[in-house]
Amino acid sequence: MSKVLVTGGAGYIGSHTCVELLNAGHDVVVLDNLSNSSKEALNRVQTLTAKSVDFVEGDILDEVVLDQIFQNHQIDAVIHFAGLKAVGESQKIPLKYFENNISGSISLVQAMERANVFNLVFSSSATVYDEANISPLNEDMPTGMPSNNYGYTKLIVEQLLEKLAQADERWSIALLRYFNPVGAHKSGLMGEDPQGIPNNLMPYVTQVAVGRREKLSIFGNDYDTVDGTGVRDYIHVVDLANAHLCALNNRLNAQGCRAWNIGTGNGCSVLEIKNTFERVNGIEIPFEFAPRREGDVATSFANNARAVQELGWTAKFGLEDMLADSWNWQKQNPNGYRD
Ligand code: NAD
Ligand code: UD1
């Protein structure tokens, strides 16, 4: 069993990953500055697992805090979730994104090097793929210039980490390219808790369902897709969390830097999401068609064969689970962790 430092472990994907790590017998240290999360998420991790998390409230840009963590704990590997992720905000305040996501990642790997810890799993995104690629997207397809600064930071960090591993063979780095994480823990105790108006589809849908928003705007109904609305590869957050454990196992016995897609391989349209949510949960989602959103592509879904073959990972949950679990979380926690 390993001791794992989880940066951003109080966040949406990080907190679900902490549960899976603890349930698998690993020890967990979380570093999070709580800029987009609540300590309550970690209380719930502990409730669900009946195990304790070592929590350090601090910033990945703070090298003193990082060095202290590596001195106080015998860390075997790091899972690096900490980062800012609001696409619109990244267009308005790019420097904040460059500092937090790019400089923050550099600060982290510098501290890892000082501490002789060379196993890293990094949260990347399908947004790094060139938009000209035709789905299903596989890892050998070219990356391209993402349509926003958030995506750009993911591409830059991927490239930095690749070059680092090329230059120094002690490094073993997994780049996990997430498709569209949705869903929540089955218990309804943990889930996605965005601040302000949600940018992403699923939290918007659940906030309409719970009465916090009036209606869903569907961005574009004239794409070249099954019903004209955008197609994405939605992946249950618990399946995604488990991909990190698989990547960790893989990296503890390997060298170099390698990318894996984490998606189900199934494309699903916005209308399918809305209709399936209504059917599974018995709630109507009022909606309107609105113009296309800038930067959106028509279709994006994964070829996940590499993760299945090399990591021994599979997605266990289907769309109905994702939508039922998202709703179960939102219904039990109408105001997220702020109740
Ligand atoms: P999240 O905002 O819920 O979690 C990120 C966590 O990092 C938060 O708890 C936040 O407080 C913390 N954090 C941010 N900056 C920090 C800093 N400088 N120092 C310490 N802590 C810091 O987001 P999430 O959805 O859980 O995403 C986790 C990672 O996965 C992010 O890197 C994100 O970019 C990436 N990702 C997310 C998605 C998605 O759709 N959710 C898709 C692809 C990639
Ligand atoms: C978006 C980001 C991407 C980021 C990812 C995870 C953009 C252009 N892309 O991806 O960089 O990695 O989130 O954070 O922002 N939709 C609606 N109405 C809504 C919200 C979304 O119709 O209110 C549609 C979108 O047009 C899209 C689909 O739902 O077709 C999914 O959208 P979203 O959840 O924002 O994810 P992505 O666009 O795939």
Descriptive report:
The chain has 339 residues and is α/β, with parallel strands linked by helices. The protein has a domain at 3-183 and 234-264 and 302-315: 3-Layer(aba) Sandwich (Rossmann fold). It has eleven helices and 13 strands. Helix 2 (39-49) links the parallel strand 2 (27-32) and strand 3. Helix 1 crosses helix 8 (237-251) and helix 3 packs parallel to helix 5.
Bound molecules: nicotinamide-adenine-dinucleotide, uridine-diphosphate-N-acetylglucosamine
Helix amount:
40-55%
Topology, number of strands: 13
Mean of residue pLDDT values: 97
CATH superfamily heading of the domain at 3-183 and 234-264 and 302-315: NAD(P)-binding Rossmann-like Domain
Q: CATH topology of the domain at 3-183 and 234-264 and 302-315, what is it called? A: Rossmann fold
Physical arrangement of strands within the biggest beta sheet:
3-2-1-4-5-6-11
How many helices?
11
Q: Class by helix and strand content?
A: alpha/beta
Largest sheet: 7 strands, parallel
Cα end-to-end separation = 35 Å
Short account of what is shown:
Keywords: Carbohydrate metabolism, Galactose metabolism, Isomerase, NAD. The protein has 339 residues and is α/β, with parallel strands linked by helices.
